[in-house]
């Protein structure tokens, strides 16, 4: 509970051009920075797996 002397956090707003409700990941994670790291890590792992699969398939 904030008192008169304590500043309140400004409301969280989406970046310019974005609208609508947060997606499923943001509803679970709540921290945008962590969500970016998770998506980036998943993307890197998936890309690596595809690269290995195609290297093995095409030699």
Task: Outline the structure in words.
The radius of gyration is 20 Å and the shape is elongated. Helices cover 56% and strands 0% of the residues. The chain is built from two helices and no strands. By secondary structure, the chain is mostly helical. It has a domain at 28-58.
The total strand number stands at 0
SSE run = HH
How much helix is in the residues? Answer: 55-70%
* Overall pLDDT score: 87
Class by alpha and beta content = mainly alpha
Shape: elongated
- The rounded distance between the terminal residues' Cα atoms is 63 Å
What proportion strand? under 5%
Low confidence ranges: none
Q: Please summarize the sheet with the most strands.
A: none
DSSP summary: helix tally:
2
Radius of gyration: 20 Å
List the helices and strands and how they pair.
Layout (H helix, E strand, L loop, with lengths): L23 H6 L2 H27 L1
């Amino acid at each position: 509970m904030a008192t008169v002397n304590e500043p309140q956090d400004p409301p969280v707003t989406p970046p310019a051009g974005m609208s609508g409700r947060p997606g499923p990941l943001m509803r679970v994670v709540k921290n945008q920075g962590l969500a970016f790291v998770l998506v980036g890590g998943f993307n890197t792992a998936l890309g690596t797996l595809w690269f290995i699969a195609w290297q093995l398939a095409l030699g």
